[in-house]
Amino acid sequence: MRYFIEFSYNGAHFFGYQIQPKQITVQEVLEKALSTLLREDIKTTGAGRTDTGVHARKIFAHFDTEQPISTDLVKRLNAFLPPSIAIKRIFQVEEEMHA
Description:
The protein is globular, with a radius of gyration of 13 Å. It is of the alpha+beta class. It has a domain at 7-48 and 70-88: 2-Layer Sandwich (Alpha-Beta Plaits), CATH 3.30.70. The protein has helices at 26-38, 73-80; strands at residues 2-9, 44-46, 56-64, 85-93.
């Protein structure tokens, strides 16, 4: 199953969105949170990228999982993530949809 995730972030403490070696990024933190809560290795694909220190008011990413997503995942993610990343919603989409 494919899911879209809508979120925002304050990029002040991140080295951009996309994963980079030896740097903390939004994608890395998001994937670690999803992987921990869903108990499987989750990889995300973002709809865009930002540079170091840049914020995003509204951005999307997608991820795949074989398990259904519980209705409280947004709440659980927001409790798990740092306050600089805010999950707005998660919704299932068709498999061919791409962020």
